[in-house]
Amino acid sequence: MSTAVSTTPMHNRVQEFVSRPRKMFVDGKWVEAASGKTFPTYNPATGEVLAQVAEGDREDIDRAVKAARRAFDSGPWHEMTPSQRGRVIWKLGDLIEEHLEEFAQLESLDNGKPLSVARIADVPLAADLFHYMAGWATKIEGNTIPISASSRHVKYLAYTRREPVGVVGQIIPWNFPLLMAAWKLGPALATGCTVVLKPAEQTPLSALLLAELIAEAGFPDGVVNVVPGYGETAGAALASHPDVDKIAFTGSTEVGRLILQAAAGNLKKVSLELGGKSPNLVFADADMKATIPGAASAIFFNHGQCCCAGSRLYIEQSIFDHVVHGVAEQAKKIKLGPGFDPDTSMGPLVSEEQMNRVCSYLESGLHEGAEAVVGGHKRPGAGYFVEPTVMVKTKPDMKVVREEIFGPVVCAMPFRDVDKLIAEANQSEYGLAAAVWTRDISKAHRIAEKLRAGTVWINCYNVFDAALPFGGYKQSGWGREMGHESLELYTEVKAVCAAI
Ligand code: NAP
Ligand code: MG
Asked: How would you label 354-370 residue by residue, b for 16+ Cβ within 10 Å and e otherwise?
């Protein structure tokens, strides 16, 4: 295996991990695909094959669902107390911390992100999510409910129980491979569900390392199954499987619709975390020292491959030139390079397909009359590098303003009137996130109320916490991940009513 010139030595364990074809994890065992097929995952910094991975499809999904069903209906998981469940989930968080460097390296190699970012964001946040969710295992409670059907002659005792929804299929994207696995698995395991997880074809490796730790942490066989493969085969089989009780999906709005259709067969429960085109509102009274780097990192963090990226930057007219210049200067300072180079602040996009997609948006914007103050092109040579780009002179109906680019491209637009600004910010089919930068706290909270988005940041951006619910209004999704809200996605409520 070869990688781009890198100044960070590859961890022995990582070298070993990518040197052999990786199997899938079904019913506590490492197995080949039923078809015997494998598929390559690539290093986006070089375009070279990084590792071969078992290619799961319908038959493998079926085996995994059967294992998850058995583990749910009978067996040790079923009999474990909430406290015991909490302990193994906590242990998994500890094990992720112990293997932080291996995870960070795999994530950087497979996805392209800087190793330095994976070390401080992806991996610790994933560990923290399991630690947070471990605490919930013992706190999933129902209510006792005084009901009016009780009379002098008959008394009723009525209460609710929150029970696990059952076998859950989880399909995740490639932008934060380990972290998305954690967001999905944490609440499912805390509530006592069993899982079949399908990672993205571009980034299957960290989920497979996670499966090794899941076995080590003490989860019984079949509780978590990891089946890598393609969306149209493995993913579609999972979404349509008649014995899956719930499907949780993170990815594009387009595939989200397919998931919904596939789920209709057995009316399985569905939760969706989809795309975004998040407005970032900058007022003239904002603290520019924080706002300018904040607005730049809102779009450039993770190369703009964030569902909540601040991709529509609305700037009050009087400071428009100043902020655009400042964000462009930040963009110029970003050093593109392979994730393993310690000087790199932005790696390649995840794939050639994604790079071409982002470039076609750049071309469309420039063709329709927008201007790139900085960037605007792919970087020539190997790897899928695209320059951080600030576009101005856009119009509200341009594709670059309306559609999710999922790359390091921000459209900067001036505003004068607050009411018009809010209307424009809300004029999107998406509603995932938004931000407001101002020193006027009242104005900030009044605007936060009016923005139709699942998250509103004030004087900050991309702040995530295991305790803070995350998800979308409108076509950005159904349901919330993280926080206690996520537990609702994985539980059914049972009302028990007894005549006493
Ligand atoms: P995608 O194409 O929708 O893929 C996401 C996942 O769905 C992958 O595992 C994919 O498998 C699978 N898939 C594809 N077609 C499928 C089908 N017909 N049936 C079942 N599964 C299928 O999304 P992407 O382009 O990889 O990821 C970027 C998108 O994700 C962006 O739109 C972004 O906004 C969104 N996203 C949202 C959030 C959030 O929390 N709201 C977080 C991160 C990303 P393959 O890998 O084989 O294609
Ligand atoms: Mg890859």
From this structure: bbeebbebbeebbeeeb
3-class secondary-structure state, position 279: strand
Residues 6+ apart with CB under 8 A from 77: 71, 85, 192, 194, 219, 220, 222, 223
Residues 6+ positions from 445 with CB-CB distance below 8 Å: 458
Q: Specify the DSSP class assigned to residue 233.
A: I
Nearest-angstrom CA–CA distance, 124 and 128: 6
Average pLDDT of 353-364? 97
Closest C-alpha to ligand 1, atom 22 = 231
**Closest C-alpha among 233, 207, 211 to residue 224:** 211
Q: How do the domains of the chain map onto residue ranges?
A: 12-274+477-496, 279-465
- Enumerate the active-site residues: 273, 307
Q: Which two tokens stand for residue 471?
A: 């998800």
Q: Which pLDDT belongs to residue 2?
A: 45
Beta-carbon contacts of 314 under 8 Å, excluding residues fewer than 6 positions away, are 279, 280, 281, 282, 413, 414, 415, 421, 424, 425
Half-sphere exposure (Cβ direction) of 477: Cα atoms closer than 13 Å = 27
Q: 113, 230, 307, 489: which to mutate for ligand 1, most atoms within 8 A of CB? A: 307
Provide CATH code, domain 279-465: 3.40.309.10
Q: CB–CB of 56/234 below 8 Å? A: yes
For the ranges 81-90, 145-154, 195-204, 428-437, the lowest mean pLDDT is seen at: 145-154
| CA nearest ligand 1 atom 10, residue | 231
Beta strands in 306-403 (DSSP E): 312-316, 371-374, 389-392
- Out of 3.40.50.720, 2.170.190.11, 3.40.605.10, 3.40.50.10490, the CATH code matching 12-274+477-496 is 3.40.605.10
Please, are residues 350 and 392 in contact by the beta-carbon 8 Å criterion? no
Pocket of ligand 1 (CB under 6 A): 171-175, 198, 200-202, 230-232, 235-236, 239, 250-252, 255, 258-259, 273-276, 307, 404, 406, 432, 472, 477
| Ligand 1 center–CA 210 separation, angstroms | 20
Distance 470 CA to ligand 2 centre (A): 26
Q: How many CB atoms lie within 10 A of CB 59?
A: 13
Instruction: Indicate if the pLDDT at residue 487 is higher than 60.
Output: yes
Q: What are phi and psi of 373, to 5 degrees?
A: -70, -30
Task: Report pTM.
Answer: 0.97
Q: How far is CA 385 from CA 113, 304, 382, in A?
A: 11, 12, 8
Cα separation, 82 vs 80, whole angstroms: 7
Contact 202, 110 (CB under 8 A): yes
**Mean per-residue pLDDT, 419-431:** 98
Instruction: Report the C-alpha gap between 200 and 226 in whole angstroms.
Output: 11
